[in-house]
Amino acid sequence: MRIQEHVKLSTAAALLALPWLKKDTWIPFASSLLIDVDHYLWHVVTHRTLSLRAALRYFGQANPPRLPQARLLHHPLILTSLLLIAARTRSRILWLILLGLLFHVSLDVVHMSQMNHLKRSLSEEAENTCPECGQHYEALQLHTVHFTGNLLDRYQAHNFVVLCPACHERAHRKVKIKA
Question: Are residues 154 and 5 in contact, defined by beta-carbon separation less than 8 angstroms?
Fold first, then answer.
């Protein structure tokens, strides 16, 4: 899921929670967004650069690796540990931080589920044949041809195409996706 989409959905959730959480609404909101700092920190250590632009380019490539070490704060062990500490200490702040982290992770789970469904259905529709080069591939990759500003339209099939790995990489090099 793109950063912009996380911001929109986290903002909506914060507005809905405002009547109950009042001035503490910023805590789950901030944690739901800052959880992705683990991606950037992994990139800094691995690639030895502080460049945010380089990190965004790396994670925005055609098929970025989904390495567990780049998602440390998303890991169930970390979330469970925070849950246990929050329960043990009865800390409202830790519970609110955990709430934001879990909201973010749940968005990621829904996103991955939707993307896998799209990839599967579009691959079946294309009969596992790349529409660009005509080659048959068992594992086509999902490519976004248009990012819609409307979150309700985000997972519509007309916004995506499946491509072979070579054509997918080529598409990322030559075309800037419309936002």
Answer: yes
Chain center to CA of 70: 12
Q: Write down the domain spans for the chain.
A: 3-174
Q: Could you tell me if 36 and 6 are in contact, meaning their C-beta atoms sit under 8 angstroms apart?
A: yes
Q: Each residue of 8-32: pLDDT tens digit?
A: 999 999 999 999 999 999 999 999 9
The DSSP secondary structure of 11-68, one letter per residue, reads HHHHHHHHHHHGGGGHHHHHHHHHTTHHHHHHHHHHHT---HHHHHHHHTSSS----G
Buried b / exposed e over 6-44, threshold 16 CB at 10 Å, is: beebbeebbeebeeebeeebebbbebbbebbebbbebbe
Closest by Cα among 118, 111, 177 to 148: 177
Q: Using alpha carbons, select from 170, 179, 147, 178 the residue that is nearest to residue 61.
A: 170
pLDDT digits (tens, 9 = 90+) for 39-77: 899 999 999 999 999 888 888 765 677 788 888 899 999
C-alpha span between 29 and 13 (Å, rounded): 8
